[in-house]
Design brief:
Elements (H helix, E strand, L loop, with lengths): L13 E4 L7 H5 L12 E5 L2 E5 L8 E7 L1 H11 L9 E5 L7 E7 L8 H7 L19 E2 L2 E2 L19
Antiparallel strand pairs: 1-2, 2-3, 4-6, 5-6, 7-8
Length: 167
């Protein structure tokens, strides 16, 4: 197995931000079964693009984040180390061997090798919402837990009622 290269000295490509700053906050929140996990989630900003990292808990048994180059995978792992809900942080090489290495950061349990689409969604904490028809002209926001979450255009990543600081 290959080892990812060490990050360059002084490079800080990864920053942790409040979860609501993540570009995919509304997308993930609308599909997450255990809504309380959003409170301990964190936006992981790589360069200028923050994406949501959701901890394990409730029905969510594991998580992962695409990192790309090995140095970024190490930086993401280091940023999440010690945070509650991110046990067993590890870096794994994925993708075809004939292309440049592509690394992902994983935490929690390992996804079973032959998981179906439904088992995979449940493993990552997805809700049991009815599936959207491909013919539907507008995407519905699924009802997960006990609250109906707002659409992304109603509350952007930097606004909304849940704004708080990580400090």
């Amino acid at each position: 197995m290959k080892t990812p290269p060490a990050p360059e000295r002084g490079a800080q490509p990864v920053t942790l931000l409040p979860p609501e700053d993540a570009y995919d906050y509304e997308f993930v929140a609308a599909r997450l079964h255990d809504q309380h996990l959003l409170d301990s989630s964190v936006a992981v900003r790589v360069f200028r693009a923050p994406l949501l990292a959701v901890p394990v808990g409730g029905r969510r048994r594991g998580g992962s984040m695409d990192a790309g180059p090995g140095a970024l995978a190490i930086a993401i792992r280091e940023a999440l180390l010690g945070r509650v809900g991110f046990p067993g942080l590890r870096i794994r090489l994925t993708g075809p061997r004939d292309r440049a290495p592509f690394w992902i950061v994983e935490w929690g349990e390992r996804l079973p090798a032959r998981a179906t689409e439904d088992e995979r969604a449940r493993f990552y904490g997805g809700c049991d919402c009815p599936k959207q028809s491909a013919a539907s002209p507008t995407p519905a926001v699924p009802r997960c837990g006990s609250q109906l979450l707002p659409r992304a255009h109603e509350y952007g990543p930097s606004s909304g009622p849940r704004r708080r600081s990580l400090r």
